[in-house]
Amino acid sequence: MKSVAVASTDPFARSHDRYRSLRKAPLVRNAQPASRFPAFDHLRVLVIALVVLQHVALGYMEGGQAASGGAYTNGSAPVVDRAQWSGFNVVVTWTNGFFMPLMFLLSGLFVRPSLARKGLRQYLVDRAVRLGIPLLVGIVTIVPLAYYAAFLPSGGSDGFATFWKHMVTVGPWPSGPLWFVGALLVFDAVLAMVLAQDRVWQFARRFGQALDRVPAGAWQMLFLVASAAAYLPFHLAFGKSHWLTAGPFGIQSSRIGLYFLSFAAGALIGPERLARAFECRWVRWPLLAVIATAAFFALEGRQVPAWVDGVMLVLFSTITTLALLALAVRFFRTSGLIGNSLSANAYGIYLVHWPIVLWLQLFLLWAPLSPLAKGALALTLGFTLSWAASSLLRRLPGVARAV
User: Fold this and answer.
1) Helix (H) or strand (E) holding 154
2) pLDDT (tens digit per residue) in 64-114
3) Is residue 278 a contact partner of residue 330, using CB atoms and an 8 Å limit?
4) Does residue 19 sit within a domain?
5) Which side of the chain, N or C, has fewer Cβ within a 10 Å radius?
6) Which pLDDT value is given to residue 235?
7) Cα distance between residue 116 and residue 93, in whole Å
8) Which residues are paired to 252 by β-bridges?
9) Is the bond leading into 172 cis (omega within 30 degrees of zero)?
10) How far is CA 344 from the centre of its chain?
11) What angle do CA 251, 254, 259 make, to 5 degrees?
């Protein structure tokens, strides 16, 4: 099959005819990899570390209730320790408020460059390999292994094989953190197929050019307003705790619009433009994030109208996202050996950390330690072992392409 030559110029500046030839090509060989941005790589690692932190903190929150009677999903967390500390409640509230929209935004940054470089067909194939295969493998291996650690202390006595069969045939069969991979796969496929339409691709290019003609602060405020518009209708319709589920797959109902908006915004803005936006006047967003965080926690737990609660959450989430992007661009401009390894293994850490953390918490149930000590130990070992496991998995033939 004849290969299509790919120029090394910025994919956002390519001609429309050039894009059409790439879109129609079933396969593009010898395509050059997209440019890396250490700031966004490091920020992705930080967010995934916060994911691990949240999953550790859930087991030691004050007021946490353990599952009982073998019902491994009816507790406040899969594994709940009697050693509890209110500081972990703050950690969970803070991280839960912003880190998933930020993950979706970071995941969308390289959609357009990759789509222009590979063409639609090859892009979708790569997404199926990168997201679909880990998702399908994970829900039948990682998820049952993780929840077996919750099944045992809840009073379950079946062996793992019996537990696995019951989970996948009768249920409940939660997806754990893999819900994000499933949602990202759907968002990615939908957005890629939409962008592959000629008129939409032209609109996206013109939209990007329009962003370049206005101050960065203006389109950042536009992103803030758009986030509120994408979140509030779902929040008012479903409330903030409802989940839509189908078998082992699910997504938080109130955040569907916010998650997709964040992902699409990352794709439309792109990594170059986002990096330029925070090269100067970056300090405003961290300062606003301090104010938004204080207001967010001041309202936490109070009886307020649903729309007030929704507005406060989306303001906190979006401002914190912009603040962390600004700090990353300002301070994370280079990468060393450890940083490169963490960046390469960030996705793998996310995939495998869930059972590692839960089994560590299970073993620590009987340790005579304070909740802070248990949390620190579970976090340190959980992240380190997940990093090591991902690194080992990626050495297996063909695994690095998917993980």
Assistant:
1) none
2) 999 988 899 999 999 999 999 999 999 999 999 999 999 999 999 999 999
3) yes
4) no
5) N
6) 96
7) 39
8) 243
9) yes
10) 16
11) 65
d(C-alpha 360, C-alpha 365), whole Å: 9
- Under 8 Å between Cβ of 316 and 97: yes
> Is the CB of residue 328 less than 8 Å from the CB of residue 43?
yes
Please say whether the beta carbons of 125 and 284 come within 8 A. Answer: no
Tell me the pLDDT tens digit for each residue of 297-335: 999 888 999 999 999 999 999 999 999 999 999 998 888
Asked if the structure places residue 17 within a domain, the reply is: no
Instruction: Kindly state the tokens that stand for 268.
Output: 């439309």
* 12 pLDDT more than 50: no
pLDDT tier, 398 (very low <50, low <70, confident <90, very high otherwise): confident
- Is the per-residue pLDDT at 24 higher than 50? no
Closest CA to 351 of 318, 315, 393: 393
Residue 200 φ/ψ, nearest 5 degrees: -70, -40
What phi and psi, each to the nearest 5 degrees, are found at residue 86? Answer: -65, -25
Expressed as residue numbers, the domain containing 118 is 32-402
Q: For 171-228, what is each residue's pLDDT tens digit?
A: 999 999 999 999 999 999 999 999 999 999 999 999 888 888 888 888 999 999 999 9
Distances 341 to 134, 202, 278, 345 between C-alpha atoms, Å: 20, 37, 26, 6
Question: Which residues on neighbouring strands pair with residue 243, listed in sequence order?
Answer: 252
Which residue, among 256, 235, 231, 232, has the nearest Cα to 244 in the 3D structure? 256
Which amino acid, residue 65? Q
**Token pair 């996310």: residue:** 350
- The closest of 39, 64, 60, 53 to 94, measured between CA atoms, is 53
Residue 221 CB neighbour total at 10 angstroms: 12
Taking residue 5's Cβ as centre, other Cβ atoms within 10 Å add up to: 10
**Does some domain include residue 249?**
yes
Range 382-386 contact pairs with CB under 8 angstroms and sequence separation of 24 or more: 382/52, 382/55, 382/56, 382/353, 382/356, 382/357, 383/49, 383/52, 383/349, 383/353, 385/356, 385/360, 386/52, 386/348, 386/349, 386/352, 386/353, 386/356, 386/357
**What's the domain count of the chain?**
1
| Residue 135 included in any domain | yes
Query: Which residues have C-beta within 8 Å of that of residue 237, sequence separation ≥ 6?
Result: 253, 254
The residues near 159 (Cβ < 8 Å, ≥ 6 apart) are none
- 49 vs 62, 139, 342, 346, 353, CA distance in Å? 22, 21, 10, 9, 10
